[in-house]
Design a protein that fits this description.
The protein has 377 residues and is of the alpha/beta class. Helices cover 44% and strands 16% of the residues.
Length: 377
């Protein structure tokens, strides 16, 4: 029996599901993998949709400042710990996989108390508080990047779900562009992109106002360019302010497409020639696998500035450029983007550099650590 615990966000949950799928691929019966997550996160839906069982615990994260809300958080964590102890005692797992986030606390603490081996798998270059805590007891910590600050570390990369990985690795760029055009430009085909460099822009499901403003200004500045297409995923928060009607500007010059949210991100990753995006753990892993040159704008409020650390490996490999959020103006983005847009050889070198630091086997490698730690081979 294997328990995988954590969640709260897709950035925690999806790598856990990727590891679970890799364990099934390695021969572990699906019924012998069980998730423990939190009531407040998205793991209930994501894990159930993936076909795995899950228990949900009460509680929420503790804020990093003195507040009366923390009293309720501590009480919730204590209630969760009691329930987590009962779950671990009942299921008697051979190993517990700690994904991080407050939802991982109870089952991981129960594993320590019952002397059950723990594998910590971190998603970001700067480990979460829960993973730093349980990393002290973990038999091994699976690291997404070489400089992730956890003990007993093995660099595996950040696990990507098999379906997403396959849709990126096996995706044909021409077919990806064709699908993007068919969805956004009904009646046209991919030839509308012939001779154009395609710049993709996104910043999570909500988007980022500063990036959106800068890119919209660039679109206006570059209106006469017939060598460029911009695929701008605005995000839900700013959609009313940045939406176009119609959503596509396709005159003789710039081809500029806006969309609120993109469900088919694999087509964007493989169809684009260049990206401007945040440096979340999943994003960084996916653009590396896709070999997509990028300008990365780390989220400035990310805990421990982990997005800057996530970007470091790609930047060091010259696969990406880094721009601080405060500096993400149209002028600065143009300064970074123009030499890449106009130099096909540079884009090729950046793409190769991105692939050189990709770790597409991350999920399988973490699964091997789990099997070895639990004595399940």
């Amino acid at each position: 029996m294997i328990i995988i615990t954590g969640g709260g966000t897709a950035g925690h949950t999806n790598p856990g599901i990727a590891v679970a799928e890799a364990l099934v691929e390695a021969g572990v019966p699906r019924r012998d993998i069980h998730f423990v997550g939190g009531e407040r996160g998205n793991e209930a839906t994501l894990v159930a949709d993936a076909g795995f069982s899950i228990d949900l615990l009460p509680g929420r994260g503790i804020q990093r400042k003195l507040t009366t809300e923390n009293l309720g958080s501590v009480l919730g964590l204590l209630k969760g710990l009691v329930k987590g102890l009962a779950i671990v005692s009942k299921r008697k797992p051979d190993v517990v996989v700690c994904l991080g986030g407050y939802a991982a606390f109870a089952a991981s603490a129960a594993a320590v108390l019952r002397r059950i081996p723990i594998v910590v798998t971190e998603q970001n270059a700067r480990a979460s508080a829960v993973n730093r805590l349980f990393g002290r007891w973990a038999k091994v910590c699976a690291l997404p990047f070489p400089d992730t600050d956890l003990p007993n570390g093995v660099v595996t990369g950040n696990p990507i779900r098999a379906a997403i990985l396959a849709s990126v690795v096996d995706n044909d760029p021409i077919e990806a562009r064709k699908r993007l055009v068919e969805r956004r430009l009904p009646g046209h085909d991919a030839s509308v992109l012939d001779g154009r460099v395609m710049l993709a822009v996104w910043a999570g499901s909500l988007g980022a106002t500063r990036i959106n403003k800068a890119v919209r200004e660039l679109a206006e500045r570059w209106a006469d360019r017939d060598d460029l297409a911009i695929y701008h995923i605005v995000g839900r928060r700013d959609w009313d302010d940045f939406r176009q009607d119609p959503p596509v500007s396709a005159q003789d010059g710039l081809l500029y497409m806006t969309v609120e949210y993109e469900d088919h991100i694999a087509d964007v990753l493989t169809g684009a020639d260049l990206a401007v995006c945040r440096a979340g753990a999943s994003t960084v892993s996916e653009i590396a696998v896709a070999g997509l040159p990028s300008v990365l704008v780390p989220l400035p409020i990310a805990t421990r500035d982990h997005q800057r650390a996530n970007a470091a490996e790609l930047v060091a490999a010259d696969a990406a450029r880094l721009v601080d959020d405060a500096d993400a103006t149209a002028d600065r983005l143009e300064e970074e983007l123009e030499p890449i847009i106009t130099d096909q050889d540079r884009r090729r070198r950046m793409a190769e550099a991105a692939r050189s630091v990709a770790r597409p086997a991350a999920a399988a490698d973490v699964a091997k650590l789990v099997l070895d730690t639990g004595g399940l081979r």
